[in-house]
Amino acid sequence: MKENPIRSFPGIPVVGLQLAVIAACAWLMLNTGGVLPVLAVVAALLTAFCALGLYMVEPNQAAVLSLFGRYVGTAKDNGLRWNNPFLTKKKVSLRVRNFESGRLKVNELDGSPIEIAAVIVWRVVDSAEAVFNVDSYESFVHIQSEAALRAMATSYPYDQHEDGQISLRSHPIEISDRLKEHLDERLASAGVEVLEARISHLAYAPEIAHAMLQRQQANAVIAARTRIVAGAVGMVEMALAELQKSGVVQLDEERRAAMVSNLLVVLCADRGTQPVVNAGSLY
After folding, report:
1. How far apart are CA 132 and CA 127, in angstroms?
2. What is the mean pLDDT of each run of 10 residues along the chain (283 residues)?
3. Euclidean distance between CA atoms 133 and 130, whole angstroms
4. Phi, psi of 56 (to 5 degrees)
5. Residue 86: how many CA atoms within 13 Å on its side-chain side?
6. Which residues make Cβ contacts (< 8 Å) with residue 51, sequence separation at least 6?
7. How many Cβ atoms from other residues are within 10 Å of residue 164's Cβ?
8. What integer pLDDT is reported at residue 162 of this predicted model?
9. Order of all β-strands in the sheet with 54-57
10. How many Å apart are CA 56 and CA 128, to the nearest integer?
11. Of the residues 79, 128, 233, 282, which has the fewest C-beta atoms closer than 10 A?
């Protein structure tokens, strides 16, 4: 079922006409006799019944009209409007809305339990589908959003383990795009458009948070030490090359190995080293 725009009549002229008819009927009932007062009463009652066709449409709002259970159309003209009094009118907001899902506890791709929540920005773009395709489109959006968030979270790891791998923590833009795709698939039948979907909370579950923090710290230490060692090796190579180039001292293989060992200890140590001064001969 797709939305079908329908025309409506301005309500203020209709109200003016109804008031004029009721005033004329009142005058006839008070100043005439015979059949005219009876006809005036009937006309006044019909005019009062026609007032049931008046309804108000606010900006960014639509009125879904149905006649005895059959969808007739959707009126979006703002202000006081009038249509057939027999039509049933249901108001649907077309404004942009947003909500934050609850913190869901799910298992990510590697099986670790995590807590995740998202902010969803959405609006109704087809009032007929929103009213007639689902029972309650607002509840439908909330439930399907949580289901889409669960499905997306189980498809990606929390941390990136390989180059080029998309993870929940390191690729927020890509994850937001994937979540929006999941939501669009689930909410299209309800006439709802998802404008934005972003992760608002992401953390390991409390029972494993401490262990995962230790793992992250260990990974950070390993990465730092790897970089330090690489830099130290480069500095040692540069020192040996400069000594050989300038001819300050000639080192055999044994002395070269000792010098390399000492320089690496100094450069790679995590604490300040204590120098030892050799007051004797070189050998």
Report:
1. 9
2. 84 83 77 71 80 88 91 89 88 92 87 89 92 90 92 86 79 90 90 92 76 68 76 78 71 71 69 61 53
3. 6
4. -110, 135
5. 7
6. 15, 18, 85
7. 5
8. 73
9. 9-10, 79-82, 54-57
10. 18
11. 282
Q: Which residues lie closer than 8 Å to 89 by C-beta, 6 or more apart?
A: 55, 63, 64, 65, 83
pTM confidence score: 0.68
pLDDT in tens, 103-147: 888 888 888 888 899 999 999 999 999 999 988 899 999 999 999
The owner of tokens 């990606």 is 156
97-204: CATH topology: Tetrahydropterin Synthase; Chain A (3.30.479)
Q: What is the pLDDT of residues 160-195, one digit of tens each?
A: 777 777 888 888 899 999 999 999 999 988 999 999
- What residues contact 56, with CB distance under 8 A and at least 6 apart? 11, 79, 80, 81
Please give the DSSP secondary-structure letter assigned to residue 154. T
Q: Which two tokens stand for residue 115?
A: 């807590």
Burial class of residue 9 (count of CB atoms within 10 Å of its CB; 0-12, 13-18, 19+):
middle
Q: How far apart are alpha carbons 43 and 48 in whole angstroms?
A: 9
